[in-house]
Design goal:
Number of domains: 1
Strand content: 5-15%
Helix content: 40-55%
Largest sheet: 2 strands, antiparallel
Bound molecules: zinc ion
Shape: elongated
Radius of gyration: 19 Å
Number of strands: 2
Length: 127
């Protein structure tokens, strides 16, 4: 019985992904993440907009995509609440931009042009 090449490739990559995921997110990760959250208990994205929200997820700032070294690099970790992890951060990874504003009205996304005005606000620039 012949199997379509793309189906075999897809099935193999899904199995490989699952194996990598299980290998990375095992007991060692759960213990490391728990320790990290103990040290940094607040959601970083909520904190940036002036909210105090308990974090429950350790997020990889730069997606590791199976890279073992990047996965375990604590400098690449941040504490997030579940809504930020599943919402804003997921959107950032999809679109490359973080939506929302801080209490001062400037965009949360540090790479937004309004955050690159050298201290000037959009109102300073005039119409
Ligand atoms: Zn949050």
């Amino acid at each position: 019985m012949a199997i379509e090449g793309s189906s075999v490739t897809h099935a193999r990559s899904a199995a490989a992904y699952r194996a990598d995921h299980d290998r990375l997110y095992g007991r060692r990760w759960r213990r490391a993440a728990k320790r990290f959250l103990f040290g940094q208990p607040l959601c970083r994205l909520c904190f940036d907009i002036g909210l105090t929200v308990a974090a429950s997820v350790v997020d990889h700032i730069q997606p590791h995509q199976g890279d073992f070294a990047l996965f375990w690099d604590e400098g690449n970790w941040q504490s997030l609440c579940k809504p930020c992890h599943d919402g804003a951060k997921a959107q950032l990874e999809r679109t490359g931009a973080l939506r929302g504003c801080r209490p001062d009205g400037l965009p949360v996304d540090a790479s937004h042009p309004w955050n690159c005005l050298g201290g000037a606000t959009p109102a300073d620039l005039g119409p």
